[in-house]
Amino acid sequence: MRHGKRIPALVLYPASWSLLILVLLVLIEGAASWALAVRSVAFREPPDRHTRYDSLLGWSSEPGRIVEQAYGPGAPIRINSLGFRGEEIDSGAREGRVVCSGDSFTFGQGVGNGQDWCHGLARLNESLEPVNMGQPGYGVDQAYLWYMRDGLPLNPDVHVFAFVEGDFTRMLTAVMYGTGKPILRVSGGQLEVRNVPVPRLRHTIGRAIERAELRLVRLGSGLRRRLANDGNTNAVEAVLPVASLLFERLRDVNERQGIATILVYLPTEVNLRKPSGMLEMVESLAADLGLNLVDLTPALRMLPAHEAAGMFLADGHYSVEGNRWVAEVLSERLRALGVPGVSQPASAN
After folding, report:
1. Cα separations (Å) of 122 from 97, 125, 152, 200, 349?
2. Pairwise CA distance, residues 255 & 322, whole Å
3. Is the pLDDT at 224 greater than 50, yes or no?
4. Which one of 12, 70, 162, 247 counts the least CB within 10 Å of its CB?
5. Domain that includes residue 96, residue range
Protein backbone atom coordinates (compact mmCIF):
# COMPACT_ATOMS: atom_id res chain seq x y z
CA MET A 1 0.00 0.00 0.00
CA ARG A 2 2.79 2.40 0.88
CA HIS A 3 4.45 1.78 -2.43
CA GLY A 4 1.15 2.36 -4.17
CA LYS A 5 0.68 5.71 -2.38
CA ARG A 6 4.12 6.98 -3.41
CA ILE A 7 3.55 6.58 -7.14
CA PRO A 8 1.16 9.54 -7.45
CA ALA A 9 3.59 11.69 -5.46
CA LEU A 10 6.44 10.80 -7.80
CA VAL A 11 4.27 11.80 -10.75
CA LEU A 12 2.76 14.88 -9.08
CA TYR A 13 5.96 16.69 -8.16
CA PRO A 14 7.45 16.84 -11.68
CA ALA A 15 4.05 17.95 -13.00
CA SER A 16 3.89 20.70 -10.38
CA TRP A 17 7.34 21.97 -11.33
CA SER A 18 6.40 21.96 -15.02
CA LEU A 19 3.24 23.92 -14.28
CA LEU A 20 5.18 26.42 -12.16
CA ILE A 21 7.73 26.95 -14.91
CA LEU A 22 4.96 27.47 -17.46
CA VAL A 23 3.24 30.06 -15.26
CA LEU A 24 6.54 31.89 -14.74
CA LEU A 25 7.18 32.00 -18.48
CA VAL A 26 3.71 33.45 -19.10
CA LEU A 27 4.26 36.09 -16.42
CA ILE A 28 7.65 37.02 -17.85
CA GLU A 29 6.23 37.33 -21.35
CA GLY A 30 3.38 39.47 -20.05
CA ALA A 31 5.75 41.73 -18.12
CA ALA A 32 7.93 42.14 -21.20
CA SER A 33 4.88 43.04 -23.28
CA TRP A 34 3.82 45.71 -20.83
CA ALA A 35 7.39 47.04 -20.71
CA LEU A 36 7.38 47.39 -24.49
CA ALA A 37 4.02 49.13 -24.31
CA VAL A 38 5.24 51.64 -21.72
CA ARG A 39 8.42 52.27 -23.69
CA SER A 40 6.62 52.96 -26.96
CA VAL A 41 4.16 55.28 -25.24
CA ALA A 42 7.03 57.19 -23.68
CA PHE A 43 8.67 57.67 -27.06
CA ARG A 44 5.33 58.21 -28.85
CA GLU A 45 5.94 55.70 -31.64
CA PRO A 46 3.94 56.33 -34.85
CA PRO A 47 1.60 53.64 -36.22
CA ASP A 48 4.19 52.59 -38.80
CA ARG A 49 7.74 53.36 -39.77
CA HIS A 50 6.76 55.99 -42.34
CA THR A 51 3.75 57.58 -40.63
CA ARG A 52 2.93 60.26 -38.09
CA TYR A 53 -0.09 61.27 -36.04
CA ASP A 54 -2.78 63.08 -38.04
CA SER A 55 -5.61 64.84 -36.21
CA LEU A 56 -8.07 64.26 -39.08
CA LEU A 57 -7.04 60.84 -40.40
CA GLY A 58 -5.49 59.19 -37.35
CA TRP A 59 -2.19 58.69 -39.18
CA SER A 60 -0.66 59.77 -42.46
CA SER A 61 2.70 59.52 -44.18
CA GLU A 62 5.45 61.77 -42.86
CA PRO A 63 6.69 64.07 -45.65
CA GLY A 64 10.29 63.37 -46.62
CA ARG A 65 10.41 60.11 -44.70
CA ILE A 66 12.72 57.41 -46.11
CA VAL A 67 12.86 53.84 -44.82
CA GLU A 68 15.57 51.95 -46.66
CA GLN A 69 15.01 48.21 -47.08
CA ALA A 70 11.56 48.55 -45.54
CA TYR A 71 10.50 45.32 -47.23
CA GLY A 72 13.93 43.86 -47.78
CA PRO A 73 16.97 44.70 -49.94
CA GLY A 74 16.04 47.02 -52.79
CA ALA A 75 12.51 47.61 -51.48
CA PRO A 76 12.48 50.99 -49.70
CA ILE A 77 9.65 53.30 -48.68
CA ARG A 78 10.18 56.88 -49.79
CA ILE A 79 7.65 59.59 -49.00
CA ASN A 80 7.91 62.82 -50.97
CA SER A 81 7.62 66.32 -49.53
CA LEU A 82 3.85 66.36 -50.09
CA GLY A 83 3.33 63.18 -48.05
CA PHE A 84 2.73 60.73 -50.91
CA ARG A 85 4.72 57.61 -51.72
CA GLY A 86 7.04 58.13 -54.65
CA GLU A 87 9.23 60.76 -56.25
CA GLU A 88 8.74 64.50 -55.94
CA ILE A 89 5.95 66.11 -57.93
CA ASP A 90 5.00 69.71 -58.58
CA SER A 91 1.90 70.63 -56.59
CA GLY A 92 0.80 72.87 -59.44
CA ALA A 93 -1.54 71.76 -62.22
CA ARG A 94 -0.16 69.17 -64.60
CA GLU A 95 -1.85 67.46 -67.54
CA GLY A 96 -2.16 63.68 -67.18
CA ARG A 97 -2.03 63.58 -63.38
CA VAL A 98 -3.71 60.51 -61.88
CA VAL A 99 -4.35 60.21 -58.13
CA CYS A 100 -4.65 56.67 -56.77
CA SER A 101 -6.55 56.48 -53.46
CA GLY A 102 -6.71 53.35 -51.34
CA ASP A 103 -5.21 51.25 -48.58
CA SER A 104 -2.08 49.07 -48.33
CA PHE A 105 -2.86 47.34 -51.64
CA THR A 106 -2.62 50.73 -53.35
CA PHE A 107 0.33 51.90 -51.24
CA GLY A 108 2.28 48.84 -52.35
CA GLN A 109 2.93 47.16 -49.04
CA GLY A 110 5.65 44.57 -49.49
CA VAL A 111 7.24 46.09 -52.61
CA GLY A 112 9.70 48.89 -53.21
CA ASN A 113 9.10 52.41 -54.44
CA GLY A 114 7.88 52.55 -58.02
CA GLN A 115 6.81 48.90 -57.97
CA ASP A 116 3.23 49.65 -56.86
CA TRP A 117 0.47 49.41 -59.46
CA CYS A 118 -0.21 53.16 -59.41
CA HIS A 119 3.28 53.92 -60.68
CA GLY A 120 2.90 50.95 -63.00
CA LEU A 121 0.09 52.81 -64.77
CA ALA A 122 2.55 55.60 -65.59
CA ARG A 123 5.15 53.17 -66.92
CA LEU A 124 2.54 51.81 -69.31
CA ASN A 125 1.21 55.25 -70.21
CA GLU A 126 3.98 57.82 -70.47
CA SER A 127 1.61 60.80 -70.42
CA LEU A 128 0.44 60.00 -66.88
CA GLU A 129 1.90 61.40 -63.68
CA PRO A 130 1.05 59.06 -60.77
CA VAL A 131 0.24 60.27 -57.26
CA ASN A 132 0.10 57.33 -54.85
CA MET A 133 -2.35 58.20 -52.06
CA GLY A 134 -2.57 54.68 -50.67
CA GLN A 135 -2.10 54.23 -46.93
CA PRO A 136 -1.85 50.95 -45.00
CA GLY A 137 -4.81 50.39 -42.69
CA TYR A 138 -7.09 53.01 -44.25
CA GLY A 139 -10.78 52.45 -44.67
CA VAL A 140 -12.84 53.99 -47.47
CA ASP A 141 -13.64 56.86 -45.08
CA GLN A 142 -10.00 57.82 -44.44
CA ALA A 143 -9.06 57.47 -48.11
CA TYR A 144 -11.93 59.81 -49.00
CA LEU A 145 -11.04 62.38 -46.34
CA TRP A 146 -7.37 62.36 -47.33
CA TYR A 147 -8.23 62.88 -50.98
CA MET A 148 -10.60 65.74 -50.20
CA ARG A 149 -7.94 67.45 -48.09
CA ASP A 150 -4.69 66.82 -50.00
CA GLY A 151 -5.55 65.15 -53.32
CA LEU A 152 -8.27 67.38 -54.74
CA PRO A 153 -6.07 70.53 -54.58
CA LEU A 154 -3.66 68.80 -56.99
CA ASN A 155 -6.41 69.04 -59.63
CA PRO A 156 -5.74 65.65 -61.25
CA ASP A 157 -7.26 64.59 -64.56
CA VAL A 158 -8.16 61.17 -63.14
CA HIS A 159 -9.01 59.94 -59.67
CA VAL A 160 -8.73 56.16 -59.27
CA PHE A 161 -10.42 55.23 -55.99
CA ALA A 162 -9.40 51.65 -55.22
CA PHE A 163 -10.52 49.40 -52.37
CA VAL A 164 -10.72 45.85 -51.09
CA GLU A 165 -13.73 44.41 -49.29
CA GLY A 166 -12.38 45.04 -45.80
CA ASP A 167 -12.00 48.77 -46.46
CA PHE A 168 -15.76 49.19 -46.07
CA THR A 169 -16.11 47.42 -42.73
CA ARG A 170 -13.27 49.59 -41.42
CA MET A 171 -15.72 52.48 -41.61
CA LEU A 172 -17.68 50.97 -38.71
CA THR A 173 -15.06 51.54 -36.03
CA ALA A 174 -13.19 54.41 -34.41
CA VAL A 175 -10.15 52.20 -33.71
CA MET A 176 -8.08 50.37 -36.30
CA TYR A 177 -5.11 48.20 -35.31
CA GLY A 178 -5.13 49.87 -31.92
CA THR A 179 -4.97 53.36 -33.45
CA GLY A 180 -7.69 56.01 -33.36
CA LYS A 181 -9.40 57.04 -36.59
CA PRO A 182 -12.26 59.25 -37.73
CA ILE A 183 -15.81 58.06 -38.17
CA LEU A 184 -18.20 59.15 -40.94
CA ARG A 185 -21.93 59.20 -40.26
CA VAL A 186 -24.93 60.54 -42.17
CA SER A 187 -26.71 63.35 -40.33
CA GLY A 188 -29.40 65.51 -41.90
CA GLY A 189 -28.47 64.34 -45.37
CA GLN A 190 -24.85 65.35 -44.87
CA LEU A 191 -21.63 63.47 -44.17
CA GLU A 192 -20.57 64.20 -40.60
CA VAL A 193 -17.00 63.55 -39.49
CA ARG A 194 -16.85 62.35 -35.89
CA ASN A 195 -14.07 61.47 -33.47
CA VAL A 196 -11.97 64.40 -34.68
CA PRO A 197 -9.53 65.65 -33.75
CA VAL A 198 -8.60 62.00 -33.42
CA PRO A 199 -7.56 61.50 -29.77
CA ARG A 200 -3.79 61.46 -29.60
CA LEU A 201 -3.80 59.46 -26.34
CA ARG A 202 -5.78 56.65 -27.91
CA HIS A 203 -3.41 56.75 -30.86
CA THR A 204 -0.22 56.34 -28.85
CA ILE A 205 -1.36 53.97 -26.14
CA GLY A 206 -3.56 51.89 -28.41
CA ARG A 207 -0.83 51.39 -30.98
CA ALA A 208 1.76 50.68 -28.31
CA ILE A 209 -0.32 47.92 -26.79
CA GLU A 210 -1.02 46.51 -30.24
CA ARG A 211 2.69 46.42 -31.00
CA ALA A 212 3.34 44.63 -27.73
CA GLU A 213 1.00 41.87 -28.93
CA LEU A 214 -1.08 41.64 -25.79
CA ARG A 215 -3.46 38.88 -26.77
CA LEU A 216 -6.16 39.82 -24.30
CA VAL A 217 -6.26 43.41 -25.55
CA ARG A 218 -6.37 42.18 -29.13
CA LEU A 219 -9.41 40.11 -28.23
CA GLY A 220 -11.06 43.13 -26.64
CA SER A 221 -10.20 45.28 -29.65
CA GLY A 222 -11.83 42.75 -31.94
CA LEU A 223 -14.90 42.72 -29.74
CA ARG A 224 -15.12 46.50 -29.89
CA ARG A 225 -14.95 46.40 -33.67
CA ARG A 226 -17.82 43.94 -33.76
CA LEU A 227 -19.88 46.01 -31.33
CA ALA A 228 -19.18 49.14 -33.38
CA ASN A 229 -21.85 47.93 -35.76
CA ASP A 230 -24.40 49.42 -33.33
CA GLY A 231 -26.14 46.08 -33.05
CA ASN A 232 -26.58 45.65 -36.81
CA THR A 233 -25.25 42.25 -37.80
CA ASN A 234 -25.51 43.03 -41.51
CA ALA A 235 -22.31 44.87 -42.42
CA VAL A 236 -23.58 45.84 -45.85
CA GLU A 237 -26.66 47.53 -44.38
CA ALA A 238 -24.50 49.29 -41.81
CA VAL A 239 -22.08 50.63 -44.43
CA LEU A 240 -24.60 51.47 -47.18
CA PRO A 241 -25.83 54.93 -46.05
CA VAL A 242 -22.33 56.34 -45.57
CA ALA A 243 -20.88 54.68 -48.69
CA SER A 244 -23.76 55.95 -50.82
CA LEU A 245 -23.39 59.57 -49.73
CA LEU A 246 -19.59 59.38 -49.80
CA PHE A 247 -19.46 58.26 -53.42
CA GLU A 248 -22.13 60.80 -54.36
CA ARG A 249 -20.10 63.65 -52.82
CA LEU A 250 -16.94 62.33 -54.47
CA ARG A 251 -18.65 62.22 -57.86
CA ASP A 252 -20.01 65.76 -57.51
CA VAL A 253 -16.80 67.42 -56.36
CA ASN A 254 -14.74 65.70 -59.06
CA GLU A 255 -17.26 66.60 -61.76
CA ARG A 256 -17.10 70.27 -60.78
CA GLN A 257 -13.34 70.22 -61.34
CA GLY A 258 -13.50 68.11 -64.50
CA ILE A 259 -11.86 65.10 -62.86
CA ALA A 260 -12.73 61.61 -64.11
CA THR A 261 -13.70 59.30 -61.22
CA ILE A 262 -12.98 55.58 -61.52
CA LEU A 263 -13.88 53.14 -58.75
CA VAL A 264 -11.69 50.02 -58.68
CA TYR A 265 -12.37 46.82 -56.76
CA LEU A 266 -9.05 45.11 -56.04
CA PRO A 267 -9.38 41.34 -55.51
CA THR A 268 -7.59 39.64 -52.63
CA GLU A 269 -6.44 36.05 -52.39
CA VAL A 270 -9.67 35.26 -50.52
CA ASN A 271 -11.71 36.38 -53.55
CA LEU A 272 -10.23 33.52 -55.53
CA ARG A 273 -12.26 31.14 -53.34
CA LYS A 274 -15.40 33.10 -52.54
CA PRO A 275 -17.18 36.22 -53.83
CA SER A 276 -17.11 39.57 -52.07
CA GLY A 277 -20.01 40.42 -49.81
CA MET A 278 -19.56 44.12 -50.51
CA LEU A 279 -19.09 44.03 -54.28
CA GLU A 280 -22.80 43.78 -55.10
CA MET A 281 -23.46 46.86 -52.97
CA VAL A 282 -20.70 48.83 -54.71
CA GLU A 283 -21.91 47.73 -58.14
CA SER A 284 -25.41 48.95 -57.30
CA LEU A 285 -24.15 52.28 -55.96
CA ALA A 286 -21.93 52.86 -59.00
CA ALA A 287 -24.83 52.16 -61.36
CA ASP A 288 -27.18 54.48 -59.46
CA LEU A 289 -24.63 57.30 -59.36
CA GLY A 290 -23.40 56.87 -62.93
CA LEU A 291 -19.85 56.05 -61.82
CA ASN A 292 -17.50 53.70 -63.64
CA LEU A 293 -16.56 50.65 -61.57
CA VAL A 294 -13.73 48.34 -62.61
CA ASP A 295 -13.78 44.94 -60.89
CA LEU A 296 -10.54 43.02 -61.42
CA THR A 297 -11.83 39.82 -59.77
CA PRO A 298 -12.99 38.03 -62.96
CA ALA A 299 -9.63 38.67 -64.65
CA LEU A 300 -7.77 37.22 -61.66
CA ARG A 301 -9.95 34.11 -61.62
CA MET A 302 -9.21 33.49 -65.30
CA LEU A 303 -5.51 33.03 -64.54
CA PRO A 304 -4.12 29.51 -64.03
CA ALA A 305 -3.98 28.68 -60.32
CA HIS A 306 -0.18 28.82 -60.10
CA GLU A 307 -0.11 32.22 -61.82
CA ALA A 308 -2.84 33.63 -59.60
CA ALA A 309 -0.99 32.43 -56.50
CA GLY A 310 2.14 34.23 -57.69
CA MET A 311 0.30 37.55 -57.59
CA PHE A 312 0.38 37.55 -53.79
CA LEU A 313 2.99 37.71 -51.07
CA ALA A 314 2.86 35.52 -47.98
CA ASP A 315 0.98 38.24 -46.07
CA GLY A 316 -1.71 38.48 -48.76
CA HIS A 317 -0.59 41.74 -50.40
CA TYR A 318 0.32 42.00 -54.06
CA SER A 319 3.77 40.85 -55.08
CA VAL A 320 5.87 42.76 -57.61
CA GLU A 321 4.27 40.59 -60.29
CA GLY A 322 0.83 41.17 -58.77
CA ASN A 323 1.25 44.95 -58.87
CA ARG A 324 2.44 44.70 -62.46
CA TRP A 325 -0.59 42.60 -63.35
CA VAL A 326 -3.01 45.08 -61.75
CA ALA A 327 -1.41 47.94 -63.65
CA GLU A 328 -1.67 46.10 -66.97
CA VAL A 329 -5.28 44.97 -66.58
CA LEU A 330 -6.42 48.28 -65.11
CA SER A 331 -4.68 50.19 -67.89
CA GLU A 332 -6.62 48.18 -70.47
CA ARG A 333 -9.92 48.86 -68.69
CA LEU A 334 -9.20 52.58 -68.36
CA ARG A 335 -8.30 52.74 -72.04
CA ALA A 336 -11.60 51.07 -72.92
CA LEU A 337 -13.42 53.70 -70.86
CA GLY A 338 -11.65 56.50 -72.71
CA VAL A 339 -9.96 57.85 -69.59
CA PRO A 340 -7.61 60.77 -70.37
CA GLY A 341 -3.98 59.74 -70.73
CA VAL A 342 -4.68 56.06 -71.43
CA SER A 343 -6.67 56.32 -74.65
CA GLN A 344 -3.76 55.15 -76.78
CA PRO A 345 -2.12 51.70 -76.73
CA ALA A 346 0.28 51.23 -73.83
CA SER A 347 4.01 51.63 -74.40
CA ALA A 348 6.12 49.79 -71.83
CA ASN A 349 9.51 51.27 -70.86
Report:
1. 9, 5, 19, 37, 10
2. 31
3. no
4. 12
5. 51-336
